[in-house]
Amino acid sequence: MNSATDGFRLLVRKINNLFNGPQTSALCTIQGRLSFCDSSNISEKFASFLDNFFDDFSLRKLHARIFVYGFGSNSFLGSKLLNCYAKFGLLAESRWVFDRIINGNLSLWNSILVGYFRAGHYDEVLIRYLNLKERKTGLDGWGITFGLKSCIELGFFEFGRGVHVDAFKFDLKADCFYGSTLIGLYSKHGKIKDACRVFDEITNKDLVVYTSMITGYFQGKDHSAYEAFQVVRSMQKQHLCPSRVTLVSLLQAASQLEAIKECREIHGYSIRKGIGRSDEIFETSLIDMYHKCVDPKMAACIFGIMDARTVGSWNAMIASHLQMGQPFEAFDIFCQMMHENFVPDMVTLANAIFCCADLKYLREGKSSHGYILRIGAQLDIVATTALVDLYSKFNIVRAKEMFDSLGNRDAILYNVMLAGYLHNELSWEAIKTFSKMIEAGIEPNIGSTLNALSAVCNLET
Question: Which parts are the PPR repeats (predicted)?
Answer without folding.
Answer: 206-242, 310-344, 410-444
